[in-house]
Design a protein that fits this description.
The structure holds two protein chains of two kinds.
Chain A: H1 6-26, H2 28-35, H3 57-76, H4 80-98, H5 109-119, H6 142-170, H7 172-176, H8 178-193, H9 202-206, H10 212-224, H11 233-254, H12 259-262, H13 275-294
Chain B: H1 3-22, E1 45-55, E2 58-61, H2 64-68, H3 73-86, H4 88-99, E3 107-116, H5 117-123, E4 129-137
Antiparallel strand pairs in B: 1-2, 1-3, 3-4
Classes of the chains: A mainly alpha, B alpha+beta.
Chain lengths: 295, 141
């Protein structure tokens, strides 16, 4: 079992919490629109599958607002023993609700799983409102390392499952590039027909089908090769350096965004993610000291 | 929590994430998924379901928000496809719902357009075929 300092898990709490709250706020008009969709389209998965009908719009909007408030509390580490799990469960509910209208999106899955892990962990023992009155646990512990390792493992497994799906559903056509080429052109054509933004690179790419097979193969290498990220920090850097451009490529070719991995926070559990916070903190303290001396 | 418990939780979570994809017939869900995106078999000529506004013979494309109630393109597309699949009552319901969001005069048409997708992207080619499933007047006079 890997050990880690309390600050590393705290940093991951702040990163995932900030991202989730920011995501809900930036996409608030969309999440509010979802609460007003025609109940005839209701087809909930997972934890909401027992609900026969959607919530009344007002109640759904209230749950959304409570989720944002709980998210702020969890991110700040205020009463985290309550706010951490409550935010995780509410976020699971809100994002499941978003996926309850006859189509499953796949951009929120990893964020939801990470927030569930962080929300069940002692992630507010440092850098939190709760920890202000306590002394910081100095020595690294498996209490803080294990949740991060679990989050890293979940990241890896989701990529592997995605790669397996390509072989399972598309088979050899994926390796020849046919599936990817037609997926890119279909997806962009559908965007154009449905009056949405599409990638200007799709048509030129279709004129150079020789480029597609290497892209298909590279996709599989990134997805099925994800377990190497668990071997060491160097391997994690190498894999992340391959996985992130892969997501940039999806944006460029299909105008489809997976914001969580694009933000790099999805890959944070592989790294000493407390270091940027410490650097900012040192710089801030240095500046405060300098101002104090000058005064 | 003991290390033994941690190992057990790790094993349980790993199985939870992997099993739907590993088992035959495993269904997609949320947040546990089989991640089937981008794996469907498509061809160069594809049928695309959508809703358009027709006024004086001029066909105008509508936004995902107008069609599906949110800015999610895929949700709009699936909504139209499901209504076509579900039949006249669902088509009529969708048509009237979209008509309520259009503030221009004309006729709302729920259609399936068949396109050569590359020609459409490259040269704005017209559909090879258009099949109209439902029509209704827009809410605007």
């Amino acid at each position: 079992m890997a050990e880690a300092p309390a600050r590393r898990l705290a940093a991951f709490r702040i990163l995932t919490g900030s991202f989730a709250v920011g995501y809900l706020l930036v996409r608030l008009p969309y999440f509010l629109a979802v609460t007003r969709l025609d109940p005839a389209r209701w087809d909930p998965p997972g934890v909401l599958s027992l609900l026969d009908a959607p919530l009344a719009p007002g109640l759904a909007q209230a749950v959304l607002m409570v989720t944002i408030v709980a998210g702020v509390a969890a991110t700040l580490g205020w009463r985290y023993r309550l706010s951490g799990p409550v935010f995780a469960v509410l976020l699971l509910g809100v994002l499941t609700y978003r996926n309850s209208w006859s189509h499953l999106f796949h951009a929120d899955n990893l964020l939801t799983l990470h927030v569930l892990i962080v929300g069940s962990a002692p992630a507010a023992d440092a850098w939190s409102v709760d920890a202000r009155a306590r002394s910081l646990p100095e020595s690294p512990s498996v209490r803080y390392g294990w949740p991060l390792r679990l989050a890293a493992l979940v990241t890896v497994l989701t990529y592997v499952v995605t790669g397996v799906a390509k072989l399972r559903y598309a088979g050899g056509d994926w390796l020849t590039g046919d599936t990817l080429l037609h997926q890119i052109t279909f997806d962009n054509a559908r965007k154009k027909v449905l009056g949405s933004q599409y990638s200007p690179l799709a048509a030129p790419l279709a004129d150079h089908p020789g480029l597609i097979a290497p892209l298909s193969l590279a996709t599989l290498v990134v997805e099925l090769g994800a377990p190497v990220a668990l071997l060491s920090r160097r391997w994690a850097i190498a894999w992340t350096a391959a996985a992130w451009p892969f997501h940039v490529g999806i944006v460029a070719l299909m105008a489809i965004s997976f914001p969580y991995p694009l933000s790099l926070i999805a890959f944070a559990p592989f790294f000493r993610c407390e270091r940027p916070f410490q650097a900012v903190s040192r710089r801030w303290r240095g500046r405060s000291t300098a101002v104090g001396s000058a005064a | 929590m003991t290390n033994r418990t941690r190992w057990l939780v790790t094993l349980a979570v790993s199985l939870l994430v992997v099993l739907p994809a590993a088992l035959p017939g495993g269904a997609d869900g949320f947040p546990i998924s089989t991640y089937p995106m981008f794996t469907s078999h498509r061809g160069p000529v594809m049928a695309i379901d959508t809703v358009v506004l027709v006024d004086d013979g001029r066909r105008q494309r509508l936004s995902p928000t107008t069609i599906g109630g949110t800015d999610e393109i895929v949700l709009a597309a699936v909504t139209v496809s499901n209504a076509i699949h579900d039949g006249p009552a669902a088509l009529d319901r969708l048509c009237r719902e979209v008509a309520g969001r259009v503030d221009e005069p004309g006729t709302i048409e729920v259609v399936t357009e068949t396109h050569d997708t590359v020609d459409l992207l490259r040269a704005d080619a017209l559909p090879l075929e258009v099949r109209v499933h439902a029509r209704c007047p827009s809410a605007s006079p």
